[in-house]
Structure formats: structure tokens, C-alpha cells
Amino acid sequence: MKKIAVIVGHNPIKQGALSIAPIGRSEFDFNSELAQLMLAKSSTYSFEIAIFYREYQKSYYKEIQKVYAEVDAWDADFSTELHFNSAVFTALGSEVLSSGSRKSMLFAQKTQNELVTLFDRTGKTDRGVKVRKKGARGYRSLVAGKAAAIIVEPFFGSNRQDVQQMYTLGLEQLAEAYLRAIEQL
Question: Which of 15, 51, 48, 16 is CA-nearest to residue 36?
């Protein structure tokens, strides 16, 4: 049985971006609930999920090394780190970040396909799979562990249209999209 590590992005001290209303939550709070939903719904799928939380370490590098060492100790086959984007209010869309390895790219594309379907993304709102190079934001999470890793950015918490659409869809729909992508691995 495949083992999938679900890492909640950020931590209780540095919670990441804050989404505008009607979500009005930090990445950490939003994705903590999402991870729990994924775990609860995973029993009907043919894989095992475990949730991992990043712990504030005063050093991003140490924080990432610690959580991915825990993922390695659990012997995960794949890992997904849960986030959402934030930028200027006009930016919107879904994207998945990959290390560029074969398994990471496979996982990233399956996940992006599910996000595109869920959010009905077309044109520029399908931001695609993006390979992170050394030194780029998110790179460390993608290469710190042994498991093929991705980072998911399903919507922009700074964009009114994206936030309203995510709010209308609900966390359960997003959890199911992620689980469907994992099932295809």
C-alpha cells in the first residue's frame, strides 16, 4: 500500500498568508483542517495517509529538515505540502510545484489535472506544473526528503474571485480532488 505524507504548510507561529473574506484564514489554519479531512476520507482509497506538521525552528532550513526527516522515518512514497498562493489581488489560478524528478512530475501533473477540473481552470488560470530550481522559493521542501514531493497552490487567497470559488466549493471538494490525484499514482 502506498504511503502518502500530507505536510501542513507553515506552522502555528508563522502561519503563512492570510486569505481575504469569506475564507479569512491563514494557510496553516485552512490546511490543517484540509489535512484532517483528507485523512478522514482516505479510508475508502487504496493508500495510507499520515499528517505532518512543520514546527517553528527559528530557521526555515531546520524546520523543513525536521519535518521531512519525520516523513522519511515514516517511509513515505510521496509527499504533498499544502499551501495556497497570495500575491497582488489580480493574480489567480492553480499551480503545483515539483522538483522535476519523474515521480514528482507525475504526482504534480495528476494533482494539477484534478485542480483544473475542480476549479474549471482555463487559459492563464491553469498555471500548470512548475519545476523549482535550487534557491527558488519552495525548493527545499521538494528535495529535503526521500519521497517524491510536491507543493500544492490551489488558489490565491488574495484574489476575491478565487477565494469566493474556493469558499463555494468547500474544503471537502478540495480534499477529494487531492485524494483522486493520489489514487492515480
Answer: 51
